[in-house]
From TrEMBL:
GO cellular component terms listed in the entry, alphabetical order: plasma membrane
GO terms of molecular function: ATP binding; ATP hydrolysis activity
Record PROSITE patterns: ABC_TRANSPORTER_1, ABC_TRANSPORTER_2
InterPro entries for the chain: AAA+_ATPase, ABC_transporter-like_ATP-bd, ABC_transporter-like_CS, P-loop_NTPase, Siderophore_ABC-ATPase
Stated name of the protein: Iron-dicitrate ABC transporter ATP-binding protein
Keyword Secreted in annotation: no
Record localization: Cell membrane
One BP annotation, GO: iron ion transport
Gene3D superfamilies: P-loop containing nucleotide triphosphate hydrolases
Record bears the keyword Cell membrane: yes
Length: 269
């Protein structure tokens, strides 16, 4: 089991050059829980995740890992405690699946430590969990988009960190594989106690899998808390500019969003 770590954004502002994307955002990620971040396009979700992962330096404010500024921590210490799967990662040309997933073990190597049986076991477990063991000898650039996405997730799992940040981990996956990946991340949370933070677009899957839901709009938090308390018809309308009905999911009982468009909104005549 992982020891829960506290991850907090305090008055955090992020951007690119003079353009601010996240504005004075403060929140605490619940340790040992699955947190899902949702919001419309260009609202700052990915930028916020990059800030949490120290891939983007704050314009102001701070990200705290167990009460210490993540910017002040040694890179290896951060890599041992926090893993990140960014959006659209690019693999080196010709690298095999096993070699890519093995890179998740680099933070554990240190200056003099050699590859061990524990490293082999972590890589094999990650490949098995993501259903990519049969692809182990294949070149990553030969794989389909969905296969590549599962391999990148395997690399993040092989890193074996207590906090795992994932930016749209279900991209390129068909519906069945989306559910498989989300089940896998939930298993990791429940069996290992890992804190999982991910950005998702699909609201119904976000509600089903999130212990804690963060709704972002225009670089700030519009609402946060339990999905049943957060994702109301009013919030969906205000944040996503979409009319809907919110009904209980028949499988999980969590909120299910039923969009209301201009067509096919009633029984045929």
């Amino acid at each position: 089991m992982f020891a829960p770590s506290a991850l907090e954004a305090r008055s955090l502002s992020l951007g690119y050059g003079d353009r601010r994307v996240v504005h004075d955002l403060s929140l605490t990620v619940p340790p040992g829980k699955v947190t899902v971040v949702v919001g419309p396009n260009a609202c700052g979700k990915s930028t916020f995740l990059r800030g949490l992962a120290r891939l983007l330096s704050p314009a102001s404010g701070a990200v705290l890992l167990d009460g210490r500024s993540i910017q002040d921590l040694p890179s290896r210490e951060v890599a041992l405690r926090l893993g990140i799967l960014p959006q659209g990662p690019v693999a080196p040309d010709g690298i095999t699946v096993t070699d890519l997933v093995s890179r998740g073990r680099h933070p554990h190597q240190g200056w003099f430590r050699r590859w061990t049986a524990d490293d082999d076991a972590a890589v094999t477990a990650a490949l098995t969990a993501t259903g990519t063991l049969d692809l182990a000898t294949r070149a990553v650039d030969e794989l389909s988009g969905g296969q590549r996405q599962r391999v990148w997730i395997a690399m993040a799992l092989a890193q074996r960190t207590g906090i795992l940040l994932l930016d749209e981990p279900t991209t390129y996956l068909d519906v069945s594989h989306q559910v498989e990946v989300l089940d896998l991340l939930t298993d990791l949370n429940e069996t290992e106690g890992a804190t999982v933070v991910m950005v998702l677009h699909e609201l119904n899957l976000a509600c089903r899998y999130a212990d804690h839901l963060i709704v972002m709009r225009a670089g700030q938090v519009a609402a946060a808390g339990l999905p049943a308390e957060v994702l109301t018809e009013q919030v969906v309308g205000d944040v996503f500019d979409m009319r809907c009905r919110v009904v209980p999911d028949p499988v999980s009982g969590t909120p299910m969003i039923v969009p209301i468009g201009r067509h096919r909104t009633g029984s045929p005549a």
